[in-house]
Amino acid sequence: MIISHELRDQSYPGGDMQPLFQEYQTRCEGLVIFTFGADELWYARRDQPIRKCKPYKITPVDTTGAGDSFRAGIVYGLLHSWDDESTVDFASAVAACVCLSAPHALNAPGLEGVLAFMKERKHAKA
């Protein structure tokens, strides 16, 4: 379950995110992720402490499609049975790579490009 900051801002304006995240954890079977745009995201499964991941530091050209790209990266990691940390890290890299060019549909990197991006950059864990 991936909940964007846009959805939370619309559905829960001014709400405390920690109890809301814990409510999602209680009700969802799998991985729960709250994104906060360029700020660190939260992720965990039921009965786990919240883990945090800082997005890759980039200067975006265009952020259109970043959320969809992040979700695609999560699906890719889950389909390959990666651990949650690796999956979230990869999805963050996919979203960052997509934000570095426009139009994204024509210029988005393939798997090798994303992996090279991840290797080139140090990704600070929260």
In words, what does this structure look like?
The chain has 126 residues and is of the alpha+beta class. It has a single domain (2-120), classed as Ribokinase (UDP-N-acetylmuramoyl-L-alanine:D-glutamate ligase, 3-Layer(aba) Sandwich). The chain has six helices and four strands; from the N terminus they run βααβββαααα. The protein has a four-stranded mixed sheet, with helices on both faces. α3 runs antiparallel to α4 and α4 (84-98) crosses α6 (111-120). The longest helix is centred in the last third of the chain and has 15 residues, at 84-98. It is globular. The two termini are 21 Å apart. 24% of the residues are buried. The model has no long low-confidence stretch (mean pLDDT 91).
Integer tally of domains:
1
Helix content: 40-55%
The dominant shape is: globular
The CATH level-2 architecture is identified as 3-Layer(aba) Sandwich
Q: What Rg do the Cα atoms give? A: 14 Å
Q: Return the average pLDDT rounded to an integer.
A: 91
CATH topology: UDP-N-acetylmuramoyl-L-alanine:D-glutamate ligase
Which helices and strands, and how do they pair?
Layout: E1 2-3, H1 5-11, H2 17-27, E2 32-36, E3 39-44, E4 51-53, H3 66-79, H4 84-98, H5 104-107, H6 111-120
Parallel strand pairs: 1-2
Antiparallel strand pairs: 2-3, 3-4
